[in-house]
Amino acid sequence: MKALSQDRRKYLIIEALRELPVEVDTHTQMALPLELGISQATFRKWINLPKGSNTDIPGVKLVHIAKRLGKTVEQLCNDVPNIKPFMKVLKDPHDIASRFNMSR
């Protein structure tokens, strides 16, 4: 499997691994799949998922990876959709009602 460039990958796990000293990076790449209960092949597939892929790393596993690499989940995500916080959407109830062709 050909590795994707950083701007095309869904997760920045490879970049986080590269920030580690070489011996720690190598050990971590071998240890993480064991800690997560997955195969090396699955781990390689996860770290090379392309942006826009319907496949995601399960949340609990992604949190584990982030903690192990000293990162936040947000720092590892490279494909975050632009979503407004829920409270900003709810600020004007009339606006919400009008979106669904309803009146107050």
Q: For the report, how would you describe the main beta sheet?
A: none
Instruction: Give me the Rg, rounded.
Output: 19 Å
- In total, the number of domains comes to 1
Poorly predicted sequence stretches spanning 5 or more consecutive residues = none
What does this structure look like?
- The chain is mainly α.
- Helices cover 52% and strands 0% of the residues.
- It has one domain.
- The chain contains seven helices and no strands.
- It is elongated, with a radius of gyration of 19 Å.
- The termini are far apart.
Quick synopsis:
By secondary structure, this protein is mainly alpha-helical.
Would you spell out the secondary-structure blueprint of this structure?
Blueprint: H1 13-18, H2 22-36, H3 40-47, H4 59-68, H5 73-76, H6 86-89, H7 93-99
Describe this protein with a few key phrases.
single chain; 104 residues; mainly alpha; 52% helix
